[in-house]
Amino acid sequence: QVQLVESGVGLVQPGGSLRLSCAASRFTLDYYAIGWFRQAPGKEREGVSCINSSDGSTSYADSVKGRFTISRDNAKNTIYLQMNSLKPEDTAVYYCAASVFRRCVPPPPMNYWGNGTLVTVSS
């Protein structure tokens, strides 16, 4: 069974940093576009970032541009989301997801989802 597992649960102070990981089992991540999404309490899920399979191009939501960086390590079959200058409004459950459509633009439907990991930004 295909699995995506996020890690990096954390309580971080405003202005702090955290790196989330998304590890895949039973499939190879570099054949998929990978997206990070988040859902804050009482809000709809939103896309945060995405990385192409084909050329490694990345895209970001305006709210995180310049603060978050998505990257992939194909040798480890893992995708990362480095989050810097965190704000309280970044508090959410973060999910990674994989799409067989290997490009992020236009936003593709996601075929596989992780269970999510909670990030809390608070002093």
3D architecture notes:
With 123 residues, this protein is an all-beta fold. Helices cover 0% and strands 48% of the residues. The chain has no helices and eleven strands. It has strands at residues 3-7, 10-12, 18-25, 33-39, 46-51, 58-60, 68-73, 78-83, 92-99, 112-113, 117-121. The strands form two sheets. Strands 2, 4, 5, 6, 9, 10 and 11 form a seven-stranded mixed β-sheet that branches. Strands 1-3-8-7 form a four-stranded antiparallel β-sheet, with no helix packed on it. β5 and β6 form a beta hairpin. The chain starts with a strand and ends with a strand.
Concise overview:
It is built from no helices and eleven strands.
Large-scale geometry: globular
**Quaternary structure of the protein:** single chain
Unreliable runs, pLDDT <50, ≥5 residues? none
Which strand-content bin applies to the residues? over 45%
Q: How confident overall, as mean pLDDT? A: 94
Q: How many E-type strands?
A: 11
State the helicity in percent bands: under 10%
**Major pleated sheet:** 7 strands, mixed
Helix vs. strand class: mainly beta
Number of helices: 0
Q: What is the radius of gyration computed over CA atoms, rounded to a whole number of angstroms?
A: 13 Å
Q: Give the CA-CA distance, first to last residue.
A: 39 Å
SSE series: EEEEEEEEEEE
